[in-house]
């Protein structure tokens, strides 16, 4: 099945509100567990969350790593706004800054971050190299990299099965998003080719579930 891109930025306030209100605890906890399993419990310093959306990943990461601060960047103001309330009551808001910004960043690489995380951004990008350019722009030498995203299934029928299995009770707007995100996702072989092209071939790719891939390692 060919990849079918979906709109890059989530600028619709209704879509953003539904996304922010959804319970993504299973997938988002999986991401944090993968980070802990791979890099241990002692990460410290500033982390950057690429395509942070309403900030649920930033909040879970900040709770898991009390010696980290988290900066999030997202191109959709609607998504940042939708997460404002959850952030305010998260108990970790003093260590999180979410800001509007479109990727890829412009200008010379700044490389201030020893930790780079991102969940569910890659499949939104029309040009996937934007992810890897952004990593190289922001990652300090030796930075920890942890990225999770969906994997495109073999067929539309399989995508529909996954929606039925994992989002049966979700609102229609989220079921629609999930289905189209599956069709827009990259496959591990495609991601491996992107990493080679970007000079990031040292990063590893793992499949931790029937619909996710985890890309991890360290930047040079
Ligand atoms: C599916 S959401 C994931 C949000 C969050 N990471 C999470 O896991 O809940 C994808 C996010 O990427 C953002 N995005 C897509 N393309 C972007 C770009 N080129 N620059 C910045 N943000 C982008 C969208 O606006 C959206 O908020």
Strand content: 15-25%
- How many strands, which pairing sense, and closed or not: the largest β-sheet? 7 strands, mixed
> Which architecture does the CATH hierarchy give at level 2?
3-Layer(aba) Sandwich
CATH topology, which one?
Answer: Rossmann fold
Tally of strands: 7
Number of domains: 1
CATH superfamily name? Vaccinia Virus protein VP39
Number of helices in the DSSP assignment: 9
Q: Tell me the series of helices and strands, N- to C-terminal.
A: HHEHEHHEEHEHHHEE
Give the cofactors and ligands.
Answer: S-adenosylmethionine
Using only C-alpha atoms, the radius of gyration works out to: 16 Å
Supply the CATH class.
Alpha Beta
Strand numbers in spatial order across the main sheet: 3-2-1-4-5-7-6
Q: Residue ranges: pLDDT <50 for 5 or more in a row?
A: none
Shape: globular
Which secondary-structure class do the elements indicate? alpha/beta
End-to-end distance, in Å? 34 Å
Mean pLDDT: 96
For this structure, the quaternary state is: single chain
How helix-rich are the residues, as a percent range? 40-55%
Give a short synopsis of this structure.
This protein is of the alpha/beta class. It has helices at 13-21, 25-39, 56-64, 77-82, 84-88, 129-138, 156-166, 172-184, 188-198; strands at 45-50, 68-74, 96-100, 113-119, 139-150, 204-206, 212-218. Strands 3-2-1-4-5-7-6 form a 7-stranded mixed beta sheet, sandwiched between helices.
């Amino acid at each position: 099945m060919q990849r079918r891109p979906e709109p890059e930025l989530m600028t619709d306030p209704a879509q953003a509100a539904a996304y922010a209100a959804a319970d993504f605890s299973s997938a988002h906890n999986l991401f944090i567990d993968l980070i802990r399993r791979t890099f241990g419990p002692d990460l410290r310093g500033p982390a950057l969350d690429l395509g942070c959306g309403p900030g649920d990943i930033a909040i879970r990461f900040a709770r898991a790593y009390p010696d980290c601060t988290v900066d999030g960047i997202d191109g959709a103001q609607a998504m940042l706004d939708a997460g404002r309330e959850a952030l305010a009551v998260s108990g970790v808001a003093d260590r999180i800054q979410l800001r509007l910004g479109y990727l890829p960043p412009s200008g010379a690489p700044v490389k201030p971050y020893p930790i780079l995380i991102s969940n569910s951004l890659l499949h939104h990008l029309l040009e996937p190299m934007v992810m890897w350019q952004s990593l190289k722009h922001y990652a300090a030498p030796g930075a920890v990299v942890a990225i999770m995203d969906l994997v495109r299934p073999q067929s539309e029928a399989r995508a529909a099965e996954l929606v039925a299995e994992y989002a049966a009770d979700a609102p229609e707007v989220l079921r629609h998003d999930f289905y189209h995100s599956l069709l827009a996702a990259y496959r591990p072989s495609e991601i491996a080719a992107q990493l080679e092209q970007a000079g990031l071939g040292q990063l590893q790719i793992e499949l931790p579930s029937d619909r996710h891939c985890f890309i991890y390692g360290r930047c040079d």
